[in-house]
Amino acid sequence: MNPSSRWRKNSTPYLLILPTAIALVLFSLYPFVSGIVYSFTDIKFVGGKAAWIALENFEYILTGAVGTAAYFKKALWQTAVWTVTVIGGQLVLGYFTALLLNEKLPGRGIFQLLVTWLPVRLPMKKTKSAAATAWFAHQRE
Known about the structure:
Radius of gyration: 26 Å
Structural class: mainly alpha
Mean pLDDT: 81
Order of helices and strands: HEEHHHH
Strand content: under 5%
């Protein structure tokens, strides 16, 4: 095997992944990094330039004007409670479901059908019905 055909064979998977990698960088990594950079500036998004203010935005959120710090701390607490509750609930529900599916109980096949097949099929049905509803609504105009 000559070196050029070996390079072509070895580089093909990387070339196939390249468009996805570029899209990932453009639509995920760039907004993430720019959001971090913007958090350290006093940017005016309409007709203004960004001035570097370092940690002033964070200081304002934590100790700022009347109510700002309280709203931020309340939102942070509510987010933490929501996250722990949802993840904990999903974890317990998932373990319980796995234990039920693993036991030899009467009606196990129907339960397996409901747990494994319906979550896959129902969103497909909802999408089709939403598309049909939108199509009919458009036809009436």
